[in-house]
Every structure is written in C-alpha cells, then in structure tokens.
Design a protein that fits this description.
The structure is a homodimer of 289-residue chains.
Chain A lengths: L28 H19 L9 E5 L7 H7 L4 E6 L2 H14 L4 E6 L12 E7 L8 H11 E11 L6 E3 L3 H16 L10 H7 L3 E12 L4 H17 L2 H6 L5 H12 L7 E12 L4
Parallel strand pairs in A: 1-2, 1-4, 2-3, 4-5
Antiparallel strand pairs in A: 5-8, 6-8, 7-8
Helix pairs in contact in A: 1-7, 5-9
C-alpha cells in the first residue's frame, strides 16, 4: 500500500469559492493534498473490486481533483474514460494529475452536473463514483440519472465511507463530538456522512438490479505503522481537521473543544492505539428490461 | 454459512445461578440456543484463521456451552483438546454437545478458572478463546495466565466482538440506547463489550509477541436473507434482547423504551434495512525467550 506517493504540484485555490459551498471539505490546496494521500493509501482497498476490460466506455461521475481517476486508469489499462465534475477548477487539477501520472490514457473531460449529463442514453458500459453520493441532497435522483447513461447490462460501482463506522482505542468524548460535527456539517450541506450503510437501499430505489454491497474495512494498530500514518493520521484525522473552520463558523464547537477532539483522536495513532473505519463498495447492474 | 443447524436437546437451567452473576447474558436454555445459533452462523467467519495440525495440544479457555468447541473440533481434526470453563453446568452442556456432534473427538474437560489452571507450564501448543475476554475484569491478567501454560513459540487465538461496531439502517435513538444498555451492563459486571478494538494492546501488555489483529466483519442486507435471519435477528438482536430483564432490574430503562429499541433494531432486518458488526480475531505468539 503506497502512502508516500507525491502528488503533482497544483495551483493554489481560494479556500471556498461561492459556487461550491456545498462541498463540506472545501477546495484548498491542503484539501487536494489530503485527497491525494487518501486515494493513494486506499487505492488497493477501494479498487480491488473494479476490473474493466480494455475498450470499455467508462464514466467517472464526480472525479473531483482526479484522486481516484489516476488509480482507475492504472488498474484498468485501455479503458475509454469520461471524467465529469461540477467544478471546473477540480477538473483542471484532475487533468494535471492525469497528465503527470497517466499521460497516454484515453480521457474525455466533462464539466457538468451528474444529474444532467448531456450524453445519450446507454452511452457507457460502466459507471464509477467514489465519495460523491455522500454530498448529494437526493442520491436516488443522482443514481437514476446515471442509470440512464449506462447501457442495459452495464455496471455501476459506488464507493462511500460511513463515519459511524469510526471507532478507536482509546476512545474520548471530545474525539467523538468532533466526528459528530463532521457528520452534522455534511447534513447541513445536504449530504450524508453515514451513507455507506444505505448503498443497498439507495441503488435498489434507483432502479438497479443485482445490488451487491461489501464493506471494505481499514483497521490500523501498532503492527501496521504505515497504515497508522497513511490512514489514521493522514486520511481520517486530516479529514476531520479539514472542517475546523467550518465547524467553528457554524457555532458547533469552540477552538478548545475541537482541538481537544483532534488531540484525543491522535491517541488512536499513538502507542497502544487502534483505529477502525469501514468503506462500502456497491456494484449493481442496469436491468436489461 | 449454516443458520438452521439444530442444537442438541439440553437440560433446562435456572435463569441466573448465584455463582455466575457476572455472565451478563445469563444461563437460560434460550441463551444456550442463542449461543448455538450464533456459533453456527459465524463458524466460517470466526474459524477461518484457525488451523491446528493433528496431534496438537490445544486449550480452549472458557468453552462455555461448547458452541465454539464443536466448530473447533470440526475444523481441526485430530487435535487433543482440553476444554475448560468456570461453570460446571456449562461444561456439562458442552460435553453433551460434543458427544452428539463430535463423538470421536479427543477432549479432556476441565472445571476451573482460567486464571488458575492446574496445568504445568508450556502444556499446550495452542490456546483458543472466543467471547471470553469481554467478561474478565482484568483481561491482561487472564491472558498472562494463559501464556504460562502455552509453550514458547505456541500461538494464542483470541476472538471478541465490539458492540461499538454495530451500526445499521435505519438508525433509531431507542435502538442505540438499547445497545448502550448492553455495554453498560457488561461494564457493571466488570467486563467490556467494546473489547475488540483493544486486543492488540491487551495481548502486547500480557507479554505476547507478533500480535496480529484482523477485523472479521459481518454485513447483512436484503441481498443476504440467510445472514439477516441468522446474524441480525438471531445473533445480534437476540443478544440485545437477552439482557432485557437485567436492564430493567438495573433501572437503566423502562419496558416500553427497551421494547421500542428492539422494534427499531428489527427494522435493520426489514425491507431496505442493513446491519454492520465487526468481530476481531487476534493471533499472537508466546516468545521463546
């Protein structure tokens, strides 16, 4: 598992552009770095279930800064990828990342909303989305829109986290409150940080068939220092830390309590500490009828 | 995964004998049935990491009613098993179960406390314990006592749950309170229902080496009706239900609130429901020096 892969240099970006206020983690360069670290650490875990034949027409809906895109391309050589995102700025970063790490890949970039993609029905053999559904106010509507552009018999792969799966040793009340703030902020923004557990009913409600969901668990303790560093600290704690300003602005916490929560969380990465988190991977099929 | 294996007929037992008041789930026949269902459903998951060569001297510490014993014997033919438990009554049930399901097995039964086993140092090649540590007031002392009877280079396998790993859809506040009562009762009895996450530091503190812990996750949704029945309902909900009288007696809840919690929990086994739980399996070695 790679934890130290450097991400390509990327242009600085304003902290929170007005047109993207619903993305709870913000759009800073630190955030892009965090997403890169997270994707590199988790690549093996999250992409293990995805194998698309060369020549497949694949849509990545909500590619963001390309953190998963480069892994999707590395794991599936020869695919014809369309990568779409709502943010022109994220898309620009994704292009730079792919140009640096997979310059020969066949990628079409699309700036637009996954609910209103301009592609004809059944344009794709496979649809892939990772850490996208958690941000949508109506995930069933989003999935149904993606079903339209998927060919009958084609598959959709959905990967999401679930912050309710985070537990650790030693526990701490401030740490728990801090995670709750993250979930609360995501709810206030119209999303759901506990969406992993809902993938089966959501995909079923959106008209998909043969819905198969598997937890993809990360567990880190003293026997796995690289995972403690790459996941507990640089992925999970970093994600919680990334909402500090927003949690304070929303009046959910004080600087002292938030920072106490981070200090408590970090003990899970210290001597004798352990950390558990579950992602969920769903694969489903667009019915032929 | 077997979910319907009938358990052998067993004598009725008083609800809570005075000498066993620290076993939070009680000793009723319903409880013995629940333990049998649980072990059968989970056998594949929990015993996948255990493979002892024929002829190995294996100690099962805290065999209880033999729910795991029969699976241990089935998965490891030819072992020379010593099964120990604090409760003479549980041991009697375990003997009946093994006589019915593994009549040819080489088993020595020992009635006694795992902290004070009368065996010489290094008597065993392997030690196995499942759902035992969660009940001990001082799990490090228990593990250290077991280390003594394990030969240098021999392995210990420890399997425990962690009720903090339970999350489900739909969530419900009464369901969450009801699970919390179970954890609270176990703490009041000197145990820890959140012990799974602590296995690595506990085994390390008890002087074991090469401690390796893996989560063993159960996730059940509408695509897996046998697991919904066998695990969500007959293992987890049944376990929570088993502490109803005790939770009421301790003044933790009202009958209405407890029953509302069970009703909410059961929705995770209904249409569109999902359920997640993580067991932890640790394997460690007694150092040679």
């Amino acid at each position: 598992m790679t934890t130290e892969t450097p991400t390509p240099a990327e242009p600085a970006a304003p902290e929170r552009p007005d047109d993207h206020h619903d993305y709870v983690h913000g759009y800073s360069q630190t955030e892009a770095q965090r997403l890169g670290d997270q994707a590199d650490t988790l690549a093996e875990l999250l992409h293990a279930g995805t194998a698309y034949p060369a020549g497949s027409r694949v849509l990545e809906a909500g590619c963001g800064v390309g953190a998963q895109t480069v892994h999707l391309l590395a794991a599936n050589p020869g695919i014809r990828l369309t990568a779409a995102d709502l943010s022109a700025e994220s898309l620009q970063r994704a292009r730079a990342r792919v140009a640096a790490q997979a310059p020969a890949a066949d990628v079409t970039w699309h700036h637009g909303d996954l609910h209103r993609l301009p592609f004809p029905d059944a344009s794709f053999d496979h649809v892939f989305l990772c850490f996208v559904l958690e941000h949508l106010p109506d995930p069933v509507a989003g999935l149904a829109a993606l079903r339209r552009v998927l060919r009958p018999g084609g598959t959709i792969t959905v990967i999401e986290g679930d912050h309710g799966s985070a537990f650790f040793h030693p526990e701490g009340p401030a740490a728990r409150r801090t995670i709750d703030h993250l979930v609360r902020l995501q709810a206030l923004a119209g999303g759901d940080g506990l969406i992993g557990r809902r993938l089966h009913p959501l995909l079923t409600a959106a008209g998909f068939a043969r819905v198969s969901v598997r937890p993809r668990t990360v567990y880190a303790d003293g026997a796995r220092p690289a995972l403690v560093e790459g996941f507990t600290l640089r992925t999970f704690v970093a994600m919680v830390e990334s909402v500090r300003a927003e949690a304070l602005a929303a009046g959910l916490t004080t600087p002292e309590d938030f920072d106490r929560g981070i200090t408590e969380l970090r003990r899970a990465a210290g001597p004798g500490g352990t950390f558990h988190y579950a992602f969920f991977e769903a694969v489903a099929v667009r019915p032929r009828s």
